[in-house]
TrEMBL record:
Residues 57-132 form the Thioesterase domain. Pfam families: 4HBT (PF03061). Coiled coil: none annotated. SUPFAM superfamilies: Thioesterase/thiol ester dehydrase-isomerase. It comes from the Bacteria. InterPro entries: ACOT13, HotDog_dom_sf, PAAI_dom, Thioestr_dom. This is Phenylacetic acid degradation protein. It comes from Acinetobacter silvestris. Keywords: Hydrolase. Signal peptide: none annotated. PANTHER family: ACYL-COENZYME A THIOESTERASE 13 (PTHR21660:SF1), THIOESTERASE SUPERFAMILY MEMBER-RELATED (PTHR21660). One of its GO terms (molecular function) is fatty acyl-CoA hydrolase activity. Belongs to the thioesterase PaaI family.
Amino acid sequence: MNPLNMTGLEMMQAFQKGLVPAPGIAKTMGMDEVGDVEYGRIVFIATADERHTNPLGGVHGGFAATLLDSVTGCATHTVLAAGEGYGTTDLAIKMCRPMPFNKKLIAEGKVINVGKNLVISEGYLRDENGKLYAHATATNMIIHR
């Protein structure tokens, strides 16, 4: 299975099924599982633990930022053709409340616009009850190979 021959959607679906190895960031960030994967949308489940502590003892804001960059980027990936890549050019995040420790969070990314060279997406970080912890918008440049 050569990832370069797969569309972005096929690659994300293979990642979801465990057919391609998870990237290192998934382990670092406590991304426990991949939920829904469809064209223009992806869901990750993640849990912050002691690895994600800030100097004040709470969950570092980089936890939310990294999860939101990941889901907006992976949502972008689902709309790309085989051999195309992407890179984040802009990520705007709003924190709504402190991130909890040891609580399952649902990170959802959705594509809102696909252009010739740019994809714009949005991401949300919620708990299982739907409480919003952070949201973001991202712009990703399509890398044509």
